Predict the 3D structure of the following.
Amino acid sequence: MSYLFLVRHGQASFLEQNYDQLSAKGEIQSRMLGEYWASHGLEFDRVYSGPRVRQRETARIVGEAYTQASVPWPEIRIMEAFDEFRAEAVIEQALPPLVKSDPHIRAMHREFEKAEGQAQRFKTFQRMFEIVVSRWAAGELSVPGIEPWSDFCDRVQAGFAELCSNGNRGQRIAIFTSGGPTGVAMQRALNLSTESTLKTAWMVANSAYSQFLFSSTRFTLTSYNSYPHITSPDLFTYR
């Protein structure tokens, strides 16, 4: 049996022009994770990352903390399978027509536009985001040019299947990815529905990790959404 640590990236630049980069807080979260793991002597045989900047930078900063602590850190390998689904593109394309046609979405969007302060903007956007993305994942919204939810899940599942069949017996592996692939991992372990998979994905905190025990025939959850390295409430974020 081997151990898989699935890490969600540190806080990205939410509501900024370029979301796909770590915020200053995201960099701190990533460094704290690396320092925590290194201080506990947690060594990895392999380290993978999805292709997004926020995923790769989280892995890099964790690796820097390992190097500074003189703890071995493997070369980071990029796996396209662990890219996030294109939630921002779904919102960008699906939201404008929904604001026009759906009174409930229109009211939520108006509340978001009137929100004051970052915390309130995050909160109002998240409610709207979850409804729109849930409808898309359920096949109720057509968004041309975007990888469908079912294809996204198949892609991530294929990535896990590849790792599980690669002769990793007795190894400890880390994957730096996002909330979506973490939800799909929970789906694999617990046979979750689409709705439950999404809810699980949205619960994952920035820089939190989930742990699975796996082999070629087994994929079992051992811990979910752990963040013992986050010692200050100000550094705890979902977005």
About this structure: The first strand starts at residue 2 and ends at 8. The chain has eight helices and six strands.
